[in-house]
Amino acid sequence: MARLPGFAKLSPTERIEALLKEGLLTWDEAQILKEQKGLPLSIADQLTENVLSTFDLPFSLAPYFLINGRDYVLPMVTEEPSVVAAASFAAKLIQRSGGFTTQVHQRQMIGEIALTDVEDVEVASKRILEDKETLLQLANEAYPSIVKRGGGARDLWVENKGDFLIVYLAVDPKEAMGANMLNTMLEALTDRIQKLSGGQALMAILSNLATRSLVSARCAIDFKVLSRNPEEAIEIAHRMELASQLAQVDPYRAATHNKGIFNGIDALVLATGNDWRAIEAGAHAYAAQSGSYKGLSHWTSQPKEKKLYGEITLPMPVATKGGSIGLNPTVQVSHRLLGEPSAIELAGIIASLGLAQNFAALKALVTTGIQAGHMKLQARSLALLAGAKEEEVPRLVSQLLENKPFNLEKAQTLLQELRKS
Ligand code: NDP
């Protein structure tokens, strides 16, 4: 079901009114957006150190996402032109092919205690593993509230890597991301683990390589939505498959392939108040797990079925509670727009957006090239940078597009001429 038709052509106020009409926002939430009542300075000053002010970025919406049979509109915080447009475009096409399906494989966070100076690694490992149940219990006693919420320590194992004996702890953090939770539990285990191993703890800390918080998103795109011309559709699907293979064998391409995926993922992670550094670090480490950095998504063309299959799998330990999530009113609006998903649902939504963003980028790259779509947006940015007023922007943009190649100097000259005429 297509929602919010013509959304891109509306003004910001009209878009908020449309969301109100659809029941996606309450009146109070609409006011937060309309009046730009973001993070209050008094709260910002409590969140970090040496605060001077708060910092704004565009808060946008990508409609038309169909995920696991349900319609979603996705809030996105990004300053990069064309990212939101590309996500909406891809979502619309994929919606016509049945949308995305997602799968959360597991939801646990991993932390580690790294030990040095362990004399007998085998004996130490055995003693730690024999004490596993007590250690898990001690971890839970260090953070009882998560146990009450149905989560807590789930697993503990030991690995010998180089000069280190490493004890890993896996915890179900429920709706939280779990960093502080894990760090508290790990520190509570350190003394006992040192005694059991006879070694020295170098550190006890959460790992951002969240291999027990993997999520997959998939889609199966009908060739007919790729192009009205059946032969061209086959060619586009084939070239997208090749583009996906290129990102598996060439790390130079893989980095840019994944950057495109993160254009979407970061924007939604940021909008929902999650720790985007943690998500980036985990996903890039995961992308390099084979020993070579690879693209996170795969596209496969099946001409017999007339379908292009897309898939992405990556760690996505996002939260709906904890951190600064409850403190920023705009972040609260994001969660409302998404329909208050659980952390597991949110992980699937974010992975779907990453796959949509990747689809849009690859389709543009293997057909018209990325610059054609970017030109107009670049011209718009230049017009704004040159100092054009809102009513001057459309004319200056058309003049820039007629006078390629363009740069800031040309935008300034054309603006002066426009004002004289
Ligand atoms: P918090 O320390 O904020 O802990 C989670 C909070 O959420 C707790 O206060 C908990 O309450 C509350 N909560 C409410 N409902 C639920 C629920 N249903 N399930 C779980 N918790 C609930 O956050 P985290 O431990 O998740 O740590 C995340 C923060 O740590 C982020 O801000 C991150 O930036 C930061 N961080 C990240 C690191 C990294 O990535 N390497 C390292 C260090 C910090 P209660 O206590 O009552 O259960």
TrEMBL record:
Known catalytic reactions: (R)-mevalonate + 2 NAD(+) + CoA = (3S)-3-hydroxy-3-methylglutaryl-CoA + 2 NADH + 2 H(+)
Q: Which UniProt keywords apply?
A: NAD, Oxidoreductase
Q: Which PROSITE patterns match?
A: HMG_COA_REDUCTASE_4 (PS50065)
**Coiled coil regions in record:** none
Matches recorded under InterPro entries = HMG_CoA_Rdtase, HMG_CoA_Rdtase_bac-typ, HMG_CoA_Rdtase_cat_sf, HMG_CoA_Rdtase_NAD(P)-bd_sf, HMG_CoA_Rdtase_sub-bd_dom_sf
Q: What Gene3D superfamilies is this protein classified in?
A: 1.10.8.660, 3-hydroxy-3-methylglutaryl-coenzyme A Reductase, Chain A, domain 2
Pfam families (alphabetical): HMG-CoA_red
- Pathway(s) per entry: Metabolic intermediate metabolism; (R)-mevalonate degradation; (S)-3-hydroxy-3-methylglutaryl-CoA from (R)-mevalonate: step 1/1
| Molecular function in Gene Ontology | hydroxymethylglutaryl-CoA reductase (NADH) activity; hydroxymethylglutaryl-CoA reductase (NADPH) activity
Q: Per its UniProt record, what NCBIfam families does this chain match?
A: HMG_CoA_R_NAD
> What name does UniProt use for this protein?
3-hydroxy-3-methylglutaryl coenzyme A reductase
What is the organism field in this record? Answer: Streptococcus parasanguinis (strain ATCC 15912 / DSM 6778 / CIP 104372 / LMG 14537)
